[in-house]
Amino acid sequence: MARTRLKLLMLAVILPALAICWRLWSFQLHPAAHHEYKIRAESAKLRTLQPLRGSILDRRGDVLAESRSGFDVHFVYSDLNPRHIVIEVVCEELARLGDFPSAAEMEAGLAGNIDIGKLESLLRQGLPFKPEWMPLATWIPPAAAERIRRRLGPRRYFRDHFELRAMEDKPLEASQPHFGLWFRPAEVFRMELTLRRLSQSIDRYDAEGLMHRLQLSLQKIEAMVARDIRSDIQSGTDALFTRKKERNSRRIFYRRGHLLAPGISLDSVSRIEYNPDLFPGIRIVDSSRRVYPHGEVFGALTGHLRQLNNQDLKTLEESGRLLDRYPKVSSAEAFAVLRQEALRPNDVVGEGGLEEHYDLSLRGEYGMRLQQVGKNGRSGKLLASLSSTRGNDIHTTIDSKLQELLYRQLWAECAHHGHAAASAALMEIPSGAILASAAYPGYDPNRIRDASYHAEMNAALGHQTSDWLLDRPRSKALYPGSIFKIVTAIAALENGADWEGAVDPLRKYECLVGEQKPFSMRCASRYGHGHLNLYEAFEASCNNYFYYLAARHLSAGSFNQWARKLGCGDLTGIDLPPMGGSYDRGFLKNPEGVKGEKALCMYGIGQVQVQMTPLQALRMVGAVATGLKAAPRPWLVKKKTPDKIHTRNKRTAAIIQECMKRVVSDPRGTVHGKSGLEDFNFAAKTGTAQYKSNTPRYHSWLVGYGPLPKPSIAFVVVCEKSRLQGGDACSPIVRELMEYLAAKDPRFRANQEGPANSSGEAGGERR
Known about the structure:
This protein is α+β, with helices and mostly antiparallel strands. It folds into 2 domains: 67-291 and 309-345 and 364-386, no CATH class; 400-453 and 473-748, Beta-lactamase (3-Layer(aba) Sandwich), CATH 3.40.710. The chain has 29 helices and 28 strands. A hairpin with a 4-residue loop joins strand 19 (515-516) and strand 20 (521-522). It is elongated and about 135 Å long.
């Protein structure tokens, strides 16, 4: 007996030793097999580190947009809400048999039979809930019960909390016993229990509020669940619950987190993470929130953030830049190459404005931690790491105080006079730096992802303007009306000629009452203006004079040539994303399409043949301010090179500048006497374009520059669908603007030592 024991002991020692020796020998002969074994024994987990998005600042450093670190509560559908999947599957199977309750009816029955408050109280006391098991569906035929068991059986949640039981009573016509589906309420209602506990840990939300937010998210998710279940039934597969399709995109969707409560406090985070067992299906996610302190004042200019769509994900995946869907990275060097322009599926990108145009610079680059993971799942040795890189800050040319002033004034004038919309912009001369670009209505980028906000804005503004998301200064093309007479006058002075020779600015033309022959057109003044030269016609904005210039001295080609030189019909070049189509290009009719004297006349007064955006009008008046040497290109962050302008007549610029000066200083000017603007030292031109021929509504413009004689600022103001004409509609806004500029530069104040030129009388209706 003793010898037998000794032999067994020796075998127990020798056999493991031989096994170890054989393994070591095999590793020496097969190094590849050794490497494979080592990889299987050790695995590494890669964790990406989200960068903080850069800020957008004005010229003083005031924040227009910034990212603030915070924490969000996410829920995982497959963990928090598996009961919905179970009930959907059961109802799909029972629906084949006829008159069984729907999923909604089952949910309502559950909610009516369970006292959640009582359940929560008993569980906190460690007492059982009675009854422990409750019926969900009864008299399920054997075939349906078998399909339910086959489809739901692999799920642990179903096995632990639901049970198919044979009914004690059997229908007379049935050869086999029917079944009932029973459930354990204490576990099945953990979603409601979790929300109650969350409401006690998060001060901002109550249980009902969290349930409401959850239901809004579940509407889309459960629609997909129902669609997938039906597809699986028809195909005879089970993509939801079988492992062979675990990499399916739908399973990724079910397992990823969905936002439940954004921006919770650090104290709430501590309470939740300290007791993770009380919050099943809940994740705390580090997040950075984009904040826009000025709200709607800069909404369209800064843009906002949006989530990646399917096309974005496809493009990123094809280029190998979609994080979380790439081969494992084994080094920081490899990740450093990958992370450039890389994003995760749940990331956000800029949409519209500066957020979109400078998105790549603002968003920064991801970091990484490559950490060894042992067999027990615990974190092990740190193999490699790479810090995330914060996005670059964007310093703009914007004056936030001026922008705020303009927005408030635009809002006040729209509310008081009933303008459908209004916009204004200022630009430095000659650099082209934009000081302000404001519009009303604007939108609040802090609320843009809230569906209720869209409904609220559409209800409030839809009857007036439905395009409230537009950046109106750069993307709203309108008929310019009489401000286009600047182009007409320049083209006439440069290219105009008739049988009597070149256009003479001092040569007079008679503006008669009523219909003007031979053009069959009328002036805006019902009394006529009498005999006028170019200076006087410009002051009074006489249509008949410019009909004469257009029809007798110019061609459609001349209009097109000078309109394009001054910035019409083309992108301004501002560093903002283009809208496409005619939004920010405006409209300039091809010369071949302008036929007849009447078409030329309408071209001459800025109707029908041309549409301009406010920024295009700003380029035009900026070119006049530079003495027609160059057309500045507006910019916000990166300076743009202006387009040079070559003129034939050296006097052209001086003549146009004098014309625009008299619009303000001369009593017959369309700006003189409006809101006291004659008290300021600037040059301007008004414009009034009829919105529709059958309505007394106008697009009213006022463009200008100052101070004189060396201008440093050019501006544009436009009121859309206004009941007032150009000078009347825009002058209160320009008055506030001039007061602001004069406080900084006294040269904007007019010289009050002598009276203004009082010769002549007002020539009819001012435009």
